[in-house]
């Protein structure tokens, strides 16, 4: 993102106007994160596990922190710009956690399908079940790609939001020291 070019009158206006760009970028990031969470959870047609509960809890905590950061960035708080950027980096790191679990589900479904078809003469029921497992694996692959895309967008938006807030807050802080 290019350096925010602000003239002296524009910096003066920052004192009286909220930082809407950072706010709306973070709000959009929250939206993409929620869509990702529901995409992943709805793809798991399995019994809810402790791991899924932990993912939901961590998402709720992250959303609350980002929401607080949005409110603080709206009033040009530089520290919260940095915190939101760090959460954006964390969103990118989550790509190696959530979608990789989905990859394991896909692999397990394919392996189960292969086991059913290993017999010399699989029954019609086993062939049908194997085909269902293969289609489930393909669905998991699609969910994995969507999850990577949504988490990437979330991370990018949070980093841009925090960077914008940090730059504007720094300019406003420098201006206020002059005055």
Automatic annotation (TrEMBL):
Superkingdom of the source species: Bacteria
Keywords attached to this entry: Membrane, Transmembrane, Transmembrane helix
Keyword Membrane on entry: yes
Segments traversing the membrane: 21-41, 47-68, 80-97, 148-166
Protein name (database record): Uncharacterized protein
Provenance organism: Acholeplasma brassicae
Taxon lineage: Bacteria, Bacillati, Mycoplasmatota, Mollicutes, Acholeplasmatales
